[in-house]
Amino acid sequence: MSGATVGFVGLGAMGRGMAGSLLRAGHAVRVWNRSPEPVAALVSQGAEAAGSLAEVFAADTVVSMLANDQAVEGLLLDPELLAGAKATLHVNMATVSLALAERAEALHAEHGIGYVAAPVLGRPPVAEAGKLNILAAGAPELLDRAEPLFAAMGDRTWRFGDAPRQANTAKISTNFLLACAIESMAEACSLAEAHGVRPTDLVEMLTGTLFPGPIYSGYGSMVAERRYEPAGFRLPLGLKDVGLALEAGAARHVPLPFGGILRDAFLDALAHGDGEKDWAAVAEVARRRAGLPD
Amino acid sequence: MSGATVGFVGLGAMGRGMAGSLLRAGHAVRVWNRSPEPVAALVSQGAEAAGSLAEVFAADTVVSMLANDQAVEGLLLDPELLAGAKATLHVNMATVSLALAERAEALHAEHGIGYVAAPVLGRPPVAEAGKLNILAAGAPELLDRAEPLFAAMGDRTWRFGDAPRQANTAKISTNFLLACAIESMAEACSLAEAHGVRPTDLVEMLTGTLFPGPIYSGYGSMVAERRYEPAGFRLPLGLKDVGLALEAGAARHVPLPFGGILRDAFLDALAHGDGEKDWAAVAEVARRRAGLPD
Amino acid sequence: MSGATVGFVGLGAMGRGMAGSLLRAGHAVRVWNRSPEPVAALVSQGAEAAGSLAEVFAADTVVSMLANDQAVEGLLLDPELLAGAKATLHVNMATVSLALAERAEALHAEHGIGYVAAPVLGRPPVAEAGKLNILAAGAPELLDRAEPLFAAMGDRTWRFGDAPRQANTAKISTNFLLACAIESMAEACSLAEAHGVRPTDLVEMLTGTLFPGPIYSGYGSMVAERRYEPAGFRLPLGLKDVGLALEAGAARHVPLPFGGILRDAFLDALAHGDGEKDWAAVAEVARRRAGLPD
Amino acid sequence: MSGATVGFVGLGAMGRGMAGSLLRAGHAVRVWNRSPEPVAALVSQGAEAAGSLAEVFAADTVVSMLANDQAVEGLLLDPELLAGAKATLHVNMATVSLALAERAEALHAEHGIGYVAAPVLGRPPVAEAGKLNILAAGAPELLDRAEPLFAAMGDRTWRFGDAPRQANTAKISTNFLLACAIESMAEACSLAEAHGVRPTDLVEMLTGTLFPGPIYSGYGSMVAERRYEPAGFRLPLGLKDVGLALEAGAARHVPLPFGGILRDAFLDALAHGDGEKDWAAVAEVARRRAGLPD
């Protein structure tokens, strides 16, 4: 096996685009996924199929993009796997908790494997296009080493420090801001509607003036039009992300009052059966509180 | 007095730029202000000084840009003044409460004067440059009549409906969203800082990716750098605007949970002596809650 | 008119019981009410009917028990009335805002009339029985002078200081605590019910152990049994009282996070048509948030 | 070993009083504790010292009173221990999460051991006196069997249903109400103090009228006098209990807005170094928010 090979774990909606970007940039990629279907698709693009996680960790560098803490914990934080690894760098691009980030870093250090956190901003089509924003942290020499991979998968890499968890903090903070923006617009649109202003008019003005950009524009129109399906990002995942922020706050005694409101709003949405909708559906909670017509 | 003359009341930091824009666009403008200094400056630009509010209301159209409800109530909602007015249109561009907007509309109607609400987005230099965004509502024919004035003062006019209060609703909702954005960034930056991420790094990434635009960029850097002076918009004015949103919500039974948090945060900031700072200083409350170094 | 006569203004559900208590204790009472019916009832108990407020204020001491700020402001804070008064003491027993309490004190001082605030705890039957708790504040010699009246109307008088507004503060704080207790039980009962515990079992245990007393017991059973009618204290009055606390907090920059939650919960209840129910019906908001069966 | 012997695990401040009560009531008690000191004290009162947890579970009935989920999980939810147990009833009197309660019940059922949850209300001196209030749930025949033990340890047993977790729900709800009462008084006392009313006067009146009982009286005076040491119940334990309520809420999608406020207040208190104080010290957060003198 050549040292230039990149091991890649996790071919979900995001991971398959990212692995594809690596292939298109000329990297040799050895892929593994819990379910076999996405593996075949990547192999048809030139990837090598790994027979086991151990084979992935026989590559010099491993990139992983798993769904959450549980998946990372269950699949990768395996002392046996790490003890037998030839890899000297693991780039974890998942959105995970700070507690997991710390455990992961310590465990990799024990086994002499470099560990870098590099969660991303961007939806699957952006991953597909290799245009992600990558939030990275870790030892500078490791980040330098990962740079060609980042260049293949992303538009730009933002560095947040020497400790991997700093990148996870940045990602968690960003998702917290997304949720705050959605709830803000939800409350503003309910206020507007209750006073006879069309939410679509409000959002059009807002995004045409002070609040340009994909979040206010994208979620703003979903909220204003009450269009929550198909779900780009499901509501329970939103609650999970708010939970990551609250947990990160608790670990350092940082109160997050907006976070508490968000948590309750997402629970309220789930209590009313909106778990399969986009997290923008939290706006229905604001409407229900105000008794606006269903 | 020619029918083409525009009466203008309120030459504060915003009003003087707006009146100047009208002059530059070739309108004849008759100005009045409580204190005389700004009048002289406008006269030197070609305006006529009114000797009284009655002289202002002798013009066909009156534009007013006063500081708040109290000023509008005290100066303009004067039955005697309105009864004697020749003006047939009053364009009120101040940010006022919905309750005042309703009283103003009713009182003008009693005296047969058209009333339009047209609060604006933009700071004094934008007013000076005639590049404001104007949020307008009122009878369509009145809005059409005001359009040449709007064109002189603003970049774009956004119409929100036939009832003047709809424009005030849009403005109040917008300011509410500004306050929400500031508090969101304050909480996110405290979270980041507590975990060793530099808030300036976080804000640079955010504004370079998902949150472009003047609000996240301008207030984001103020929050991240803890730079709250000189005040572009003083904290007590921020509390006043949050209060307008809460009051508007209460009038239609619209709970605004983020609004409640904002109110407490602004009170906390005032309790700690930050009343002369920019409203971005509410971020210090988030830092204090988390025990971050002063 | 004898110096021993007490003028009494405001014969609502509370006032008529209080005036009756004064009569039963042997005081000469001259009564006035906006609507005439309650006057006749008191006259049949031995009271004298006043032909005007001026006649009430011709008595040595005036006791007033009006519904709210508006009534006090409109009827009693009348410079002409006070200028012509022979009364040297006005005991205001209404629950009013601190702002009104301050205006009232200042205006009475201008006219050389002693002013005491003495809001009460207790429902109409308690007023009827002369068993109220009286929260009093004002100059000690005035409080001493009012003591025989307090003794007739109440079980106990609690003194809070020399400035009348201190008694209003105590009353506003007490009502705030009532609202907090109701919301606390509402949330706890929703939590219990969602996990299969009968709210009535929970409340029975709570009031039998750590939370005895009329509030937890009375409101607890209303919440647990979802019994909100007939209304002992209507929901909009509860919102008004929460508003008095928030306003009092704002005046001294005291954030009240529970107050913000209460405000939203009461608005939510009003938005859902519960304005005629007892304020314990705010518990339905907690149930609705959790999606509990209607 | 006689069938009448009761195994007892956990001789902390509460457990030693409870085991002592069992002894005084004539029960044969075999005790185990992680650290040996309390064992000796109980042995001197007539208890038998168990050499291992297995010896405890050789008794017919086991009572456990451990500190938290971690202790219960680590010591008692041990499949080997339960598989070898002769005990047919385990009465778990600790305050634990609902998630743990469910796992515990299922695991005991697998091994054919009856499981009852019976958390208690009362501080150590009350445990010592055998006057606890016991919140119990489980199969009726198991509760009946435990009744003599309950009678020895408590004043009264409150039954909440057939599923053990119902008792845990009742306990978690009760502790949530305690925290709400403390925060309510903290806010009310800050409001009062800011307006010149002595918090001690306010609390004296409150507890003498509408809010009798140990909670408002005990915590009220601590808050009013700012007396937080010695700690009867440490602040981090309060945060843990609030967390149990929030977690229980989340499991059934029950928003708890007061809970979110409490969480932030406790974090704020910890951020300011009050972790060794009584949880009533959360009142300092309310004072700090309002800028009241330190």
UniProtKB/TrEMBL annotation, chains A, B, C, D:
Pfam families documented for this protein: NAD_binding_11, NAD_binding_2
Keyword field: NAD, Oxidoreductase
Superkingdom in the source lineage: Bacteria
Active-site residue list: K171
Any GO BP: organic acid catabolic process
Molecular functions per Gene Ontology: NAD binding; NADP binding; oxidoreductase activity
Residues in 6-phosphogluconate dehydrogenase NADP-binding domain copies: 5-157
Domain 3-hydroxyisobutyrate dehydrogenase-like NAD-binding: 167-285
Keyword Oxidoreductase in annotation: yes
Protein family (similarity comment): Belongs to the HIBADH-related family.
Protein name per the record: Oxidoreductase
Organism: Kitasatospora aureofaciens
